[in-house]
Sequence to fold (190 residues):
Amino acid sequence: MKKIPVTEQNKQMKQSVAADSNPSSVARGADAAQEEAEDPMAGLQGDLDRFRDLALRSQADFENFKKRSAREKEEAIKYANSSLLERLVGIIDNFELGLAAAKEQGADSPIYSGMVLVQKQLNDLLAENGLQPIEAEGKTFDPNVHEAIAHEPSDRVPEESVVRQTRRGYRLKDRLLRPAKVVVSSGPAK
Fold:
């Protein structure tokens, strides 16, 4: 045991007695100890709140992902035939040209009658699959569904209306598959 001089012992005793007799210093020491004990709890509570918020955000992101995936899957199914129908539309154009040539040979011929029946069956099949032709002649020009290839003066068709259609356009359900190529009126000749 180490010997402490009497004068230092007296100072230490006085300080401890003063601390014991002063309740505010005792309370301050207790508050500091309590703050140290609460501080880790506050830190843990902050971490808990942060992780709970992160979990809720992750759950909301996952729900949004599921909804978006379902919507994309539904759209993919709805428009799955679009590339096939787009290729068929080109064949229909050529078929209509052949039909017009057969009509010139004679509208009463059995070949022409057979081609008309085949065209009707083809158009019915395409309509069942959601393909709708865009009728353009005589309508007001709409850049959303028409592709203007020329302007020409016309006395019988008002300005900015379609004079004639050079290639038929098609819609697949609610989407434009192919715009109609049209000639647009520039009004009466000057």
In short: The chain has a mean pLDDT of 82.
